[in-house]
């Protein structure tokens, strides 16, 4: 019995990504801010308490809701191995050439035996007037249309006006994180697309190897 296969796009609530801003099918806007991590274990007890208190104060001052999401992925070591192999090919000293080969094999075997993970920290900033509930699904609440007020985007001028208000919120987030010692930056269009590609293709390894 043949099944009517639906395109993946029908299940994704995103209409488009315009100028780094996510436009949902209901007209709502979202921005994604990438934040770095802070290693509290390297700080003294007083510094840890101060950082946590500052972050708590930052959250309490927000008059809109956000979602913090952590994305864990296995580190793609292929670009590094390719770089080492290129170095090994041009190495003229026999001893250094042998050491490079042994190092390449060590790195390859080590990464096969041990899963080295990378973590990315994202903050989803909405332009909406609704309240969001906690959930474990990645980006689920902020991209769900259930019980949400639709925000119609009539034209480019209307989009720019709403984007301006959204970016004011992004600025508040970035300034608040900076006071906590956390660096952050809003993702652009290509970066947003890459994030969602990884979300909807969790088992796929990184794409083509790019060496600079």
Describe the structure.
With 212 residues, this protein is an alpha+beta fold. It has two domains: 8-73 and 119-200, no CATH class; 78-113. The protein is 40% helix and 18% strand. The chain has five helices and six strands. The longest helix has 24 residues, at 156-179.
Silhouette: extended
How is the main sheet built?
6 strands, antiparallel
What structural class is derived from the secondary structure elements? Answer: alpha+beta
The parts where pLDDT drops under 50 for at least 5 residues are: 129-136, 207-212
Give the termini distance in whole angstroms.
Answer: 50 Å
Query: Number of domains in the coordinates?
Result: 2
SSE layout:
Layout: E1 14-18, E2 21-24, E3 29-35, H1 45-61, E4 67-74, H2 78-89, H3 94-113, E5 117-127, H4 156-179, E6 184-186, H5 189-200
Helix pairs in contact: 1-4, 2-3
Summarize the structure.
The protein has helices spanning 45-61, 78-89, 94-113, 156-179, 189-200, and strands spanning 14-18, 21-24, 29-35, 67-74, 117-127, 184-186. With 212 residues, the chain is of the alpha+beta class. Strands 1, 2, 3, 4, 5 and 6 form a 6-stranded antiparallel β-sheet that branches.
Overview features:
212 residues, alpha+beta, 2 domains, six-stranded antiparallel sheet, disordered C terminus
């Amino acid at each position: 019995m043949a099944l009517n296969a639906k395109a993946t796009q029908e299940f994704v609530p995103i209409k488009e990504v315009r100028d780094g801003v996510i436009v949902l099918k209901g007209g709502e806007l979202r921005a994604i801010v990438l934040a770095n991590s802070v290693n509290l274990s390297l700080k003294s007890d007083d510094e840890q308490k101060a950082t946590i208190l500052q972050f708590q104060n930052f959250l309490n001052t927000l008059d809109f809701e956000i979602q913090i999401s952590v994305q864990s992925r296995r580190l793609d070591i292929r670009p590094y191995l390719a770089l080492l192999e290129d170095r090994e090919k041009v190495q003229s000293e026999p001893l250094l050439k042998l050491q490079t080969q042994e190092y390449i094999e060590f790195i390859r075997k080590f990464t096969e035996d041990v899963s080295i993970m990378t973590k990315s920290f994202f903050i989803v900033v909405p332009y909406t007037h609704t309240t969001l509930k906690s959930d474990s699904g990645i980006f689920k609440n902020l991209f769900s249309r259930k019980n949400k007020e639709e925000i119609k985007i009539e034209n480019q001028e209307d989009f720019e006006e709403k984007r301006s208000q959204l970016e004011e919120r992004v600025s508040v987030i970035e300034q608040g994180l900076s006071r906590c010692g956390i660096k952050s930056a809003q993702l652009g269009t290509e970066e947003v697309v890459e994030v969602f590609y990884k979300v909807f293709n969790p088992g796929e390894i990184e794409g083509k190897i790019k060496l600079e």
